[in-house]
Amino acid sequence: MNIVEREANLRDFLLQKYFDASNNLPSWVITSCVIALTLSVLISQYIPTVPKYVADLQILGYQLNKFGFCLIAVVFFYLIKSGLGFLFYQSIGDGKKWTIFYFTSTKFYFILSFLLIILCVTHYYFPVDRNKLFLYYLSFFAIVFIFKVFFYLFHKNNILPEKWYYKFLYICTLQIAPLLLLWKLLFF
């Protein structure tokens, strides 16, 4: 990220304005990859089993384990969610806000990636009770989700559409529904 952001420090990166920023797309892609990897590492230990239809697939003699299944599910989750977000902004005639939206969300996910890395290190390198920790993870992700919704609603860049029903539509269909689908895919 240091090379992509032209040697900007963390404070400069987080406080930069959209019109002063460069390399927004590479920053977004790198941050998304880090989030997908760390989230997959963290939740793969809690997946009960890999579904039979996925476990039966063998590519070049290899079969997906829990981490591979989580990684593919999370990557598809973010790709579909990003694609639907792009289509949402284009369909309401606010296509220029899409670039401001992913610029602003990159900063949110950049901070979240640090928190996920800390959770991964704690989870794998310190003696903790994983069953108790799962409840804390659920609480943590619920708080992060609620904070993200408020971050999007009240951000100074006005990244969500102006009309209230578009905001409601965005939050329900592109924030809550995909998360419930990912939960169902991974844990049921």
The computed structural class is mainly alpha
The total of beta strands comes to: 2
**Cα-based radius of gyration, to the nearest Å:** 18 Å
With strands numbered from the N-terminus, the spatial order across the biggest sheet is 1-2
* N to C succession of SSEs: HHHEEHHHH
Low-pLDDT sequence parts: none
Averaged pLDDT, please? 83
Q: Give the proportion of residues in helices.
A: over 70%
- How much of the sequence lies in strands comes to under 5%
Distance between the first and last residues' Cα: 36 Å
* Total number of helices: 7
Q: Can you summarize the main beta sheet? A: 2 strands, antiparallel
- Shape descriptor: globular
Structural description of this entry:
The protein is mostly helical and 188 residues long. Helix content is 72%, strand content 2%. The chain has a two-stranded antiparallel sheet with strand order 1-2. A hairpin with a 2-residue loop joins strand 1 and strand 2. Helix 2 packs antiparallel against helix 4 and helix 5 runs antiparallel to helix 6. The longest helix is centred in the middle third of the chain and has 31 residues. It is globular.
